[in-house]
Amino acid sequence: MSNSIKTYFTSVGQSFPIGPSISPEGVNFCLFSKNAIWVELLFFNDVADIEPSHVFRLDSAKNKTYHYWHIFIAGVKAGQLYGYRIHGPFEPAKGHRFDSSKVLVDPYAKSLAVPPQFNRKALSKFGKEDAQSLKSVIVDLGLYDWEGDIHPRRAFSSTVIYEMHVGGFTKNPNSGVAPDKQGTFAGLIEKIPYLVELGITAVELLPVFQFDVQDAPEGKTNYWGYSPISFFAPHQGYSTDPENPLKVLDEFRDMVKALHRAGLEVIMDVVFNHTSENHEEGPTYTFRGIDNSIYYILDNDKSKYKNYSGTGNTLNANQSIVRKMIISSLHFWVRDMHVDGFRFDLASILSRDEKGNPIENAPILWDIESDPILAGTKLIAEAWDASGLYQVGNFTGDSWKEWNGRFRDDARSFLRGDKGKVGDFVTRLIGSPDMYESKNRELEQSINFVTCHDGFTLNDLVSYNIKHNMANGENNRDGHNDNLSWNCGVEGPTDNPKILALRNRQIKNFFTVTLLSLGAPMILMGDEILHTQQGNNNAYCQDNELTWFDWDLVEKNADIFRFVKILIKKRLLRETSQSNFNMSLKELLLQSKIQWHGVKLHQPDWSPSSLSIAMTILSLNRKMAMHYLINSYNQDLTFEIPKTIDAKKVSWRRWIDTSFESPKDICLWSDASNHIENSYLVKSHSIAILFTKIE
Predict the structure, then answer these.
(1) SS3 call for 573
(2) pTM of the predicted model, to two decimals?
């Protein structure tokens, strides 16, 4: 022990629960390490300290039960900084990478302190360096007042998801948020009225686990956050006071509470497929130094990692100890932080066994699905990984919803005018029955989206044919090459009014298709105001105005904002007025009456050359009908429209025509104009929707 004046009374402690457990008497510490020879618990007085103030050596004969190392220390309070040094073999060929010179983060710590001179490169070298390490922090979760907060528990059938970046939402100086709150959980609270006005019902936050901002090319910042250090601690960079490691917990909970009061759910993008320790040359923060061969899937050459994530390593998610950690993390975010759901990044990795082989009924996925604490929690899978395991339409379980990458691709392809896509496009509109109908899955099994954080923004999707990622410093090698985008005739910015009008139509087409298709829609932050990343389709390392929400665009592009707002409002009114929340996709399609047309009634063109489709959809109660007219040709088309439905004469009213300028492009139904002709002219690359009541 050090020469510090303060002394602590210690006892053996216990092997449960894992992690730090605070009580009025002190804190019990518990850590799993199967292959450690001995363990030291370290206390620090300051986040910048390199040497500990106290060292507690855990005796393998007394402080170890099975492979759990534990100790109880009396008098420890919330805010205490600590870490571990773990002694064991450095034998990479056997999968062991213990480095007793490193101060290691407790995997179960609920808060981390980031020192001012934190340096990823220094912590990537084996052996002692005079480097400031991350510190774990003792937290008392029972001190927060939730003021009666409860989960909104909104049904998926009435959910519209808004994928957003916490920092980027308010980091722009034109946000109007005070400088000390810009880019923080607290700053997001101030902009909740904007989200309410837009009408979305759930925010899906890009990663808010503590992540490594230095995991990026030289001179860049890891902006998106897909580089987790901890699966419990919220990211200190989103706190108004990063020097107080406890404040971020309160500010995250304040944000959740405020969003709930506004009727909005909180979905977290969680990364349980890899960590920031990356490949064998990466830094040692936690798992590598605690028990490398337990936490990661290793190659046959155990000195190397299986890399199904594309980032250098793969978490061993179906190993029993790692499974337990993942479930404990989810429990923490739901029970203690009141989160409403999770989107699992590269979720197909979770269906790989301890050797990396795909398996059916992966234990971790069923653990999550069947867990009582997680019952009712929204579970969304990105059902693929970076090594070609693609499980969209075939993901494990009954409760999991899926990001539908085929919806994105087929919508992009058809609406830009690709031939041979009309059948696939229509299939996506009606809930992808080719993937979900046979399983008798819910209507919202498919999470429908056209854009997300990974790729072009919607504005860039209609403005660029190729990616422009030179700003990332990788000579434009990074990012997807095949984006199914179309610049509408000119690459990038233009003043040509015809090109701008065409792009405007295409953007409204994409919003219409996304928000009115069967499934749960997701839109990307900033698309509703035409945010551009100047053709960068992999802006993960751009923490600047290229990626930040530009609040000046809210007024500049108010026409698109209005269009999206009315679409969302009508969708939610439609969903809440129908009693089909528990109906399967198969049941809905059997009960619904959909009539397919081409330019001639009842003569749809399903040929490979077709770029148009029309359909009449009759509501379940047979009292309302909508007529969709979709034209992806580069020329105008005149469509016949039905005169009668169910042998009853109908009078059509126009709701949407994306070829019109605002405010004629969309209206409230109460303001819709009558359409008395027996046909309708649909401009090139446009969508029109009519509706009628059936008396």
Answers:
(1) helix
(2) 0.96
